[in-house]
Amino acid sequence: QKEVEQNSGPLSVPEGAIASLNCTYSDRGSQSFFWYRQYSGKSPELIMSIYSNGDKEDGRFTAQLNKASQYVSLLIRDSQPSDSATYLCAVTVNDMRFGAGTRLTVKP
Amino acid sequence: GAVVSQHPSWVICKSGTSVKIECRSLDFQATTMFWYRQFPKQSLMLMATSNEGSKATYEQGVEKDKFLINHASLTLSTLTVTSAHPEDSSFYICSARDPAVLAGSTDTQYFGPGTRLTVL
Question: What is the predicted pLDDT for the residue at B115?
Fold first, then answer.
């Protein structure tokens, strides 16, 4: 079982819609959870971090964490074409492990 | 967020040569830096953890004699790919932890812009 699993996509949503990205992790000792955005040919850019169960909102982004289900998600409201990228879920126990990423396309 | 730079941003070299990549934390002191490798359409794979003043910790399957890591100061870590071969062609990305970031976010890593290595 992979340590961090994401649906590779591609996920396609129309402009203005809500994009929902999901991630599961295997290590119950995981302490910190992150979502990074990576444009093609570029390095990852931190979008959100979440450490406790529940929701965390930052602008159009909401991260949700459920440690009992070992599940973390990212919602992007009012999706824009500029949100089209690969979204990486990362989980930290002793070091940071990344999922394979979900490719999101927002169509105008 | 904190700023991490890498140099060079891209490099093309001949098979058998060595290539050095620098990773610098510009506005903070990073006791720990990380080196990742990313092949096309794949996720980031941690290669090694670079600790200032001590030996790097390598992930399983990563040859420490081939990928030399030096973390000589609190703001600089270098990765040297020795005797590079075409299969080493990849996107190499470093990241650093900012120890000044407070509780709850101490694990946040900031990534450099990456170095694209092409070995002919």
Answer: 97
List the structure tokens of A16.
Answer: 């203005």
Q: Which of residues 55-84 of B touch A (CB under 8 A)?
A: none
Residue A51 phi/psi, 5-degree rounding, is -125, -20
Segment B26-77, tens digit of pLDDT: 988 888 899 999 998 888 899 999 988 888 999 999 999 999 999 888 899 9
B53 touches chain A (CB under 8 A): no
Quick one: closest CA in A to B10, which residue?
A41
B49, B91, B107 ranked by CB distance to A92: nearest = B107
Rounded to whole angstroms, how far apart are CA atoms B68 and B51?
Answer: 13
End-to-end CA gap in chain B: 36
DSSP character string of B68-87 = EEEEEETTEEEEEE-S--GG
- In this structure, what token pair is assigned to residue B84? 């590079």
Which long-range contacts (C-beta less than 8 Å, at least 24 apart) are formed by B41-50? B42/A100, B43/A88, B43/A98, B43/A99, B43/A100, B43/A101, B44/A44, B44/A88, B44/A98, B44/B93, B46/A95, B46/A96, B46/A97, B47/B79, B49/A95, B50/B77
The SS3 of residue A107 is strand
